[in-house]
């Protein structure tokens, strides 16, 4: 997590996506790098995963998303600084760093214990993740869970834990529960483009919160008018550390009250 380590990681990601020749624009959301490239075929998915990405989503020939977790914003900022300093060559196939042995994913067992029970962070209507109009969420590249289309303005914490990240435009946050589950609550789709309009944070990063505690306040009239979609994914981004999750909610849910899903170890 040192600045030097972050710069090296940023440089490696630039090389992995085809170097500065291929990389045209860098943006980030709460868990992913949103990159514009000359040709997405030149992106080395395997190297991205070796650097720690959980997935690479190629939306079209010029647009890719690299799912890197809650440090996406700092990696994106570091990549911009590296690019400003000068060219970075594309990684050759041989240059991919040695990878650690793949970690075995815990298997779901009949008596798996619950490590986190989440309540809905939003009042609204449940939408299955594969129905979310965003490929990175719908494909579960960002994590597993469910989405909610909000009908009320307050967004609460789905569990007790620490708010490890609130994105600078206040449209998304990442909560780490006491047992280490990382929960991403992402209000709407492509809402990062609204640059914070329609969102107000009610707590700061680093806050210890309880389940049901208000985290964000939304101007729903403005957002329903201006956001591409207000369907809001609530996903566990490190679900591979657990044996799986069980969706509890369907239909209408109430923020802070209705059980949403349970994460099993």
TrEMBL record:
Determine if Ion transport is one of this entry's keywords.
Answer: no
Record: active site: 29 (phosphocysteine intermediate)
Record domain PTS EIIA type-1: where: 134-238
> Where is the protein situated, by its record's location annotation?
Cell membrane; Cytoplasm
Kindly give the InterPro entries that the UniProt entry links to this protein.
Answer: Dup_hybrid_motif (IPR011055), Glu_permease_IIB (IPR036878), PTrfase_EIIB_Cys (IPR018113), PTS_EIIA_1_perm (IPR001127), PTS_EIIA_component (IPR050890), PTS_IIB_1 (IPR001996)
Superkingdom is: Bacteria
Which residue spans traverse the membrane? none
Q: How does it sit in the membrane?
A: Multi-pass membrane protein
The signal peptide, as residue positions, is none
Key words, A-Z: Cell membrane, Kinase, Membrane, Phosphotransferase system, Sugar transport, Transferase, Transmembrane, Transmembrane helix, Transport
Q: Which Pfam families match?
A: PTS_EIIA_1, PTS_EIIB
What cellular component terms from Gene Ontology apply here?
cytoplasm; plasma membrane
* BP-aspect Gene Ontology terms: phosphoenolpyruvate-dependent sugar phosphotransferase system
An example of a GO molecular function for this protein is: protein-N(PI)-phosphohistidine-sugar phosphotransferase activity
Q: What is this protein called?
A: PTS system glucose-specific EIIA component
What organism does the record attribute this protein to? Escherichia coli
């Amino acid at each position: 997590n040192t600045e030097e380590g972050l710069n090296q990681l940023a440089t490696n990601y630039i090389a992995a996506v085809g170097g500065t020749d291929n990389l045209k624009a860098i943006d980030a959301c709460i868990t992913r790098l949103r990159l514009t490239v000359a040709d997405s075929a030149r992106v080395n998915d395997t190297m991205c995963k070796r650097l720690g990405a959980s997935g690479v989503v190629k939306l079209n020939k010029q647009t890719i998303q690299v799912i890197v977790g809650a440090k996406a914003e700092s990696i994106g900022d570091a990549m911009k600084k590296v690019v400003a300093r000068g060219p970075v060559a594309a990684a050759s196939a041989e240059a991919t760093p040695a990878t650690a042995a793949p970690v075995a994913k815990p298997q779901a067992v009949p008596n798996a214990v619950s490590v986190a029970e989440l309540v809905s962070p939003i009042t609204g209507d449940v939408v299955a993740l594969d129905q979310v109009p965003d490929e990175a969420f719908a494909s579960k590249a960002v994590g597993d869970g469910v989405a909610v289309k909000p009908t009320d303005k307050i967004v609460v914490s789905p569990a007790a834990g620490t708010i490890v990240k609130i994105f600078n435009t206040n449209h998304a946050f990442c909560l780490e529960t006491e047992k280490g589950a990382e929960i991403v609550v992402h209000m709407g789709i492509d809402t990062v483009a609204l640059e914070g309009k329609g969102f107000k944070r009610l707590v700061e990063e680093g806050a210890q919160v309880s389940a049901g505690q208000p985290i964000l306040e939304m101007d729903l009239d403005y957002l329903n008018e201006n956001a591409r979609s207000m369907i809001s994914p609530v996903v566990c981004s490190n679900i591979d550390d657990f044996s799986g999750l069980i969706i509890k909610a369907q239909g209408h849910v109430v923020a802070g009250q209705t059980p949403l899903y349970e994460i099993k170890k």
